[in-house]
Amino acid sequence: MRIPMKITLIGSLCLGIGCAAIAQRPPMREHTATEAQPIVPVAATERAGTNVVAFSKTATARTMFANGIPDHLVGAFPNPGNPNTISEQQVNLQVPLSPTRAQSLTSAQGWVFGVSVKGVVFDPFAAEFWQGNPRSGWNYDALGGAVPLGVDANYAHVQPQGTYHYHGVPFGLLALLRYDASKHSPLVGYAADGYPIYALTGILDGQLTQVASSYVLKSGARPGGDAPTGDYDGAFVQDYEYVAEFGDLDTCNGAFTQSAEYPNGTYAYFLTPEFPFVPRCFTGTPDAGFKHGF
Asked: Is residue 293 situated within a structural domain?
């Protein structure tokens, strides 16, 4: 009998690298929606600008410089679900060249999870909470649809300070990288702890695998009272729980894989079309430069 292994996931309060001070952010919106809704992504038909990205490395670290502008088409921003405009950012990040597993997992709450090979960040948590209260313990999932957030076909949208960032699988980026479902995923990016990020397919135990998350919706209904009511349907991050070995991936949506970049094998994270979409915790130790700033 499998016993579900659960992990508590709470959204970050400040999105982006080097966030503006709290006083410069718009007030937190109050929401009472309790039902997940289908996401209808905004078609990616526009160019955001010119992509600038550069990677370098030393004996111990990999450094990324970028302007945060994607090299693929994006949706129209602002749009009805997102009032913000994409603008250039100063992305200057460093990760370990040879990451190692930490003794315990680190929640990605309060962190940028990683950065793509084109310099756009992965930032899975939304700054939207039940009744506008982060202390409620109920964080709306960005792709749950209960609160429309105007994501485009790359499951991305824009933060108030102009940062375009991914909440799910960036299909425009995969097309640029010539993703082929019959092969191991191309390298998509690096997590804050230095481990590589791939998407959808990997070679696990010597077999090409369409990787599946091990997160499932909880059964039953939310508690109500000071918490939301309704069935666990994916509106909130807390509607999900991790069930060991239900899918192919671990608590942090990772697995050991063999890829072109790591022919001898490496631990890696995977983006998946189902929750958590982008991993919500780190197996290694994230670099402090990825921490959201207040």
From this structure: no
pLDDT digits (tens, 9 = 90+) for 133-163: 999 999 999 999 999 999 999 999 999 999 9
CA distance 250 to 141: 20
Tens digit of pLDDT for each residue in 62-93?
999 999 999 999 999 999 999 999 999 999 99
What is each CA distance from 197 to 27, 165, 184, 231, in whole angstroms? 33, 15, 12, 32
Sequence letter at residue 131: Q
Residue 13: is its pLDDT beyond 50? no
Cα angle 110, 111, 113; round to 5: 145
> Hey, what's the torsion of the CAs at 279, 282, 286, 289, to 10 degrees?
20
Residue with tokens 């111990």: 60
Any domain includes 77 = yes
Cis upstream peptide for 279 (omega within 30°): no
Angstrom distance (rounded) from CA 222 to CA 34: 10
231 occurs within a structural domain: yes
Please indicate, yes or no, if residue 34 is contained in any of the structural domains. yes
pLDDT value at position 18?
Answer: 41
The answer for residues whose C-beta is within 8 angstroms of residue 138's C-beta and 6 or more apart is: 129, 130, 227, 228, 236, 238
Residues of the domain holding 127: 30-288
Q: What is the pTM of this model?
A: 0.91
Total domains in the fold of the chain: 1
How far is residue 209 from each of residues 191, 249, 257, 270, 277, measured CA to CA in Å? 21, 11, 10, 12, 17
Rounded-to-integer distance, Cα 119 and Cα 54, Å? 8
Place of tokens 């929640």: 107
